[in-house]
Amino acid sequence: xxxxxxxxxxxxxxxxxxxxxxxxxxxxxxxxxxxxxxxxxxxxxxxxxxxxxxxxxxxxxxxxxxxxxxxxxxxxxxxxxxxxxxxxxxxxxxxxxxxxxxxxxxxxxxxxxxxxxxxxxxxxxxxxxxxxxxxxxxxxxxxxxxxxxxxxxxxxxxxxxxxxxxxxxxxxxxxxxxxxxxxxxxxxxxxxxxxxxxxxxxxxxxxxxxxxxxxxxxxxxxxxxxxxxxxxxxxxxxxxxxxxxxxxxxxxxxxxxxxxxxxxxxxxxxxxxxxxxxxxxxxxxxxxxxxxxxxxxxxxxxxxxxxxxxxxxxxxxxxxxxxxxxxxxxxxxxxxxxx
Length: 339
Ligand code: NAD
Ligand code: UDP
Known about the structure:
This protein is of the alpha/beta class. The chain has helices at residues 15-26, 81-84, 88-109, 145-165, 189-198, 218-230, 256-267, 291-297, 305-318, and strands spanning 6-10, 30-35, 54-58, 71-74, 112-118, 168-174, 177-178, 203-206, 212-214, 216-217, 246-248, 253-255, 273-276.
């Protein structure tokens, strides 16, 4: 049987965090879920609250805290463009100060730490698909920079804590992931299109819909997280493991228009496609090169977009949308010409 550990999941009540907590509790670990509920709600982890192996702490990662843990998954950060542009200065603080606080804890406890990085560190990529060796094309002063540069700085901190203090780090670069427990009003394309289709409202395509994304189902991604945290593939760390960065995502690439058509087909909606202005700095293409994840972790996604969307649609049909807060107007919905 695997060794049981005390594991901290920051952002643990969020979309990805709550699925990760489920998996870790299922494996018998002692799980501490930390969240300030900025972009999530307790309902994502309600089913875990009675479990003796699960503990929930309301805390903001930009403030230090003192815990004793064996492993940390650092996920706390607003993730959708609508959420991370809501208070961009806070987004940068969460990425940088949150990483410093969690890396400091990892150093003190000699804990292993996995940092949730992102495909956004590649910006609007000029290399396609994106391998980990690509250094990216980020606009450092644009509306997405608070997140892109914040996450880049967090990667830098991970590697500096590793080199300077021997902290046992793991860095995963997550590409667009979707599934049950996404916030219905987070403004991300999958949640937007499904909620719009279920209400037979217009499907809002930003730009001409020719921009591409590659969509990974949440269960596949969580498997990738756990393999990365536990890997003992020969690599550069003191325990001989592979520390990354590694891309985690589904290499199946779709245009946003194709996604809209698929959602309409699967929901049977009578929605029309409407075009709105493309937000500033919206990447035109994105697809992970997952060669490294395959080689080092033996990982690749198993859930096709059609199957994953069907499960996600069932989830959105089952929730009462009046229990979720609606987003605030902000830059992500403004025309790039107006920026
Ligand atoms: P999410 O918004 O559902 O989850 C983020 C969680 O962090 C929320 O529960 C939120 O309340 C919490 N949080 C935000 N600020 C915090 C703070 N200051 N202190 C404590 N908690 C805070 O988004 P998600 O999709 O689950 O993303 C989780 C992580 O994965 C994020 O770091 C995100 O950048 C990264 N990521 C996600 C995707 C994706 O497609 N889902 C892609 C790339 C990277
Ligand atoms: N998008 C869209 N309509 C929406 C929401 C998003 O056309 O209602 C587009 C957005 O402009 C981007 C893509 O879908 O090109 C993915 O957007 P999302 O916010 O999900 O994440 P991103 O990959 O841009 O971080």
